[in-house]
Amino acid sequence: MIGRLRGEVIERAATTLVVDVHGVGYVVTVTPQSPFRVGEQVDLHVHTQVREDAISLYGFADPLEREVFDLLIGVPNIGPAKAMGILQTPAASIIQMVAQREPGKLAKLPGVGKKTAERLLVDLVDKMASLGPAAAGVRLPVGTSPALERPAGVLGDLVSALVNLGFKEDAALAAASGAVERLSEDAGLEALLREALSKRG
User: Fold this and answer.
1) 40 in helix, strand or coil?
2) Can you say whether the dihedral through the CA atoms of 119, 122, 127, 131 is positive or negative?
3) Is residue 138 in a domain?
4) Same domain membership, residue 25 and residue 13
5) pTM for the full model?
């Protein structure tokens, strides 16, 4: 079983890479938002699916994305391919939907639907809470005025994701603002979340 790959990206498509490891090219399925480029050296955590007719590799450089993937494939009727489809939505957004118990939004994810959305909530609310102290629900910390509203758009989504992962509201806003300033909102939620977390502490 392959659990990790380090090598150079020699081909890139929307959801696949070919990673050259000592002259052997491994085809790895990745999420569309994965920031890998041809010529880049990568270090991927890999999930290997072995079937009678094929061996499939699913790769992640983002630990949060890999953790959400592992939780998704533990849900009945969600295999690796469907989990990767769901992860077309950033992992942080999926955590937020589950934490806020939003079956309507979950049902709109690729390959999910109403029944699967309800099953995701039943199976994952408690498990995703372990990804961060506040992931079981978004609430303002004690002493924070309820009149204070979070920013809208990508910045607001990033603040919510950071709160879900254990940041206090003011720290989440500061970290989110710093990440947006360094990368710009065009970088996308997943990249901005990684940037904000990289500067923590």
Assistant:
1) coil
2) positive
3) no
4) yes
5) 0.63
